[in-house]
Amino acid sequence: xxxxxAAPSANISTxxxxxxxxxxxxxxxxxxxxxxxxxxxxxxxxxLLPLAWMISTSLKSDAQIFxxxxxxxxxxxxxxxxxxxxxxxxxxxxxxxxxxHNTLFLCVFxxxxxxxxSALVAYGFGRLEFRGKTPxxxxxxxxxxxxxxxxxxxxxxxxxxxxxxxxYL
Length: 169
Fold this sequence. Notes:
With 169 residues, this protein is mostly helical. The chain is 76% helix and 0% strand. The model has no long low-confidence stretch (mean pLDDT 86).
C-alpha cells in the first residue's frame, strides 16, 4: 500500500518541478502558454485559407465553382455534394505518372546532392584548420545571402557552357 501511495507523490513533485522550470524559462503560466498558442493558431488561419480554398474547389462541380455567391461564407466554402471523381479525372487528363516520376527523380537527386555537398563543406569549415578559412567562410555566407534573381542569369550561362541546358542535370 505504501508503494502505491509513494509513486504518485513522486510524479507530482516531478511535474511541479518541471512546471516551475518551464515558468522560469518562459515566464508564462500554463494558461498563458495555452492562450499564446491559441493566438498563434488564429494568426495562422489567414495563411491556411488559400489551402482550404484549393481543397474545397477541387471537390466542387464546375457549376459550384463559377456560381456567384457574393460573399465568402462557410456554406460557400463547403462543396455540396462532394465531387470525389474530380481527382481521377485530373489524373487521367495528363500523363500524371510521367510527371510524378520526373518530379521524384529531380527531387531525390537534388536533395541528395545538396545534403552530401553541404555536409562536406560543413565538415571542412567545422573541423579543418587552414589559412584563409574565415574569409572563405564569409564569402560562402555572402553568396547564400544573395537572392535567387541575382544568380539566375550566371547559373544559366554556366549550365549552357557545360552543355547541361535541356538535360536532367
